[in-house]
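Team,

Forwarding the record for the chain on the shared tracking sheet. I've put the sequence and predicted structure together so nobody has to dig through attachments.
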Amino acid sequence: MGFKCGIVGLPNVGKSTLFNALTQTAAAQAANYPFCTIEPNVGEVAVPEPRLGKLAAIAGSKELIPARMNFVDIAGLVEGASKGEGLGNQFLATIREVDAVLYVLRCFDDDDITHVNGKIDPLGDMETVETELMLADLESLEKRVATAEKKARSGDKEAKAAIALMDLALNELREGRPARAATVPEDDCKAWKGLQLLTSKPIMFVCNVDEESAGTGNAYSRTVEEFAKKEGAPVVIISAQIEAELALLDAEERDEYLAELNLEEPGLDRLIHAGYALLGLQTYFTVGPKEAHAWTIKKGTSAPKAAGVIHGDFEKGFIRAETIAYEDFIACNGEQGAKEAGKMRAEGKEYIVQDGDVLHFRFNV
């Protein structure tokens, strides 16, 4: 189950530097000129999970396999991208494929790094990018509505339902608001997602600050935080330069560097966890002597669906899930202790998996 967060923003705001640090690779060329990212780069990163190591230590697991998330580094968008300016159209198509959008905003001064608009204005930058996404959505919907209306006139019920949702989005876009501002009936959420609107996706703001502001933020990032409160969107303050340096260090050196900077954890850890929360994700574990494995699922996932993340046969032939809460697994020193203490439960098809559950699936195919 792959979940993708798209990293978007104007050129030269630190997107590729951030992506490189996230993936601890040089896969994305970070350079001081626009459009250095010629192809969208996709990097799979481990979700920091301290619980996994504790479970593995108790179970004597030989291997630890963390949950994963995908980040997509998308080339800098500029004004006119919706009409093909810069490398607009091909990258707008890439954004349609992600599950959430991370707006990277430049919140630092540096005369050596050119800003495409000639001034530092993070909210102005965000507005430029979002306007292009809204214009692209508007153009796409107006074309699709015309096609759907022809089908609806012939009595196509699905086309009629689709038109209602498209009109809902168009009403917002024509008023200068993103599609996510629309109130969508719960029963229509799946169809709404199927419209693949750029501005209907959940968003997060990533404030790329100077090294001195990594722990506290600055005046630029505070303006973003005030705006984000109105949007109900999370904000992560991060110094992409610091994260790039941390990515090159081993664990001991990293801890020493963080201590020097008075930072409790890498900003990337906060970013990954914020992305995880933004997408409504949670983790369950499978634990044994061979491996301790963290698995990613959506909150509200049933036991059979959770089993299907491991293998389709697990879902098809699901019998039950032998379940131990993480806290009980730790407190009882493992599976056997949890059994003896009556902390292992046999859960059926209706069970909704909880974050931190340690599961063993019984199935028959």
